[in-house]
Amino acid sequence: MEQTVRDARGRSLPLAERLGHGAEGVVNRVKDSRLAVKRLFRRDADPGQATALESRLRAVARMPIEDLPIARPMVMLAEPDLGFVMELVDDMVPLERQMLAPYEVELVPWYLATGGLRRRLRILARIATTLATLHTRGMAYGDPSPGNVLVSEPTDQDQIWLVDPDNLAVESDGSRPAVYTPGYGAPELVNRGGRISTLSDAFAFAVMAHHTLFAVHPFIGDEIEEGPVEWEEAAHAYRVPWIDHAEDHSNVSTGGLPGRNRLVTRTVTRYFRSTFEEGLLEPRRRPSCADWAMALWQAGDAMIACGSCPGQRFATRACPWCGASSGSDLVCRIWLHAGPDVFSLDRAERSGDPDRVVGVRGWDIPAGELVAIDRGRPFVLTGRHGEIRPAAPDRPLSTVSWDGDNRIQVRNVGARPVLLVSGDRNVQRRLWPEQDAEVELRPEVPPWRLCFTSDPLSPHRQVTFDLIESTGTVR
Fold it and tell me: Domain Protein kinase: where (predicted)?
């Protein structure tokens, strides 16, 4: 029988499938619409629950989140239901579907068929970026958990939509009680009655990231998985070490994906350890969501499709799924060009020779970022790669295409001109919007570079293109 609720405006809303659940209630799609309904669990001993929810939703409506992928509350539900209606995006499914394979299928084939490691890294990077942006605006999300996150259903996409807006709070608001999903709440919330904060968000995100990347909860070891429910409750209260603890091996897990540490970068591995060991009881020692965002974007960008199996691997390394390597990989290294020193530029300008001014070199500082290019699949360099302070990190700037030989195609898809400069700096090509160029990569000469500027003397970001032989090792 179809279940129906009514909103405060009298509209009848037929409920479709459940999209997620959190600490306070469940979220259902509204049939044949772009709406969803969150129904809260009623607390009989709290007659003011509805008034408090309405007050919270009014506060959320005033928060600066219009540019973020967070559902906005629209209208309260009518009695006897307690909850609200919110906007929804098409073709989204719960993040939980990216965590655990259905019982009837094998884990690794299912994992690769649902987007593999690269897609999960990018989904998590988007979540971390959204949380970090909230944090810079003085807000905490409150209950980051897989039941409160929707992701693109098509496996070639990685968009997100957060559906728990009623728990958003200004971090300095100490009057709000902590709300968390069991298994994801930070220790200071679970055990010490603390208040939500950016650091409790960061802990919950780390648990969610671990579960999504490796298909295993970081505190559910083998014995707890097979033991009574009380043991799981102890794990959710962090009375046991995490499954990959550096010294305490009493809660190891053989579940999830094999070889967890070789599937991600050393930075991501270090961040898990910092969160679940030093940061377990000392929140300020945890990586922030901004730290996580940077590490996850960089890890996802450094991955390419394996040519021998459905999986992905890190550039210049063998595939962790099948052991194959490609011989050579095309990688883009990102640099910050800090501009020339004042004295060299002054001497060149006083010489009256414009070629000498252009030839003045500045300081190229490695940004520590690497982008790997798939054969036959253009990679889009965005504001995140090419701008020092990107106002729109996802805005396309240039595409790089490579078919596996020693030539690459670069196309300017942004709104401003860019420069292609040869490694010896003897050749400069200005690419106007929608203009492209082909360059040849030769190992005996310095690599070509793409400068995201029309003025080579100004501070800007740039990428260099290198063909690198694979080592044939997994890590």
Answer: 13-304
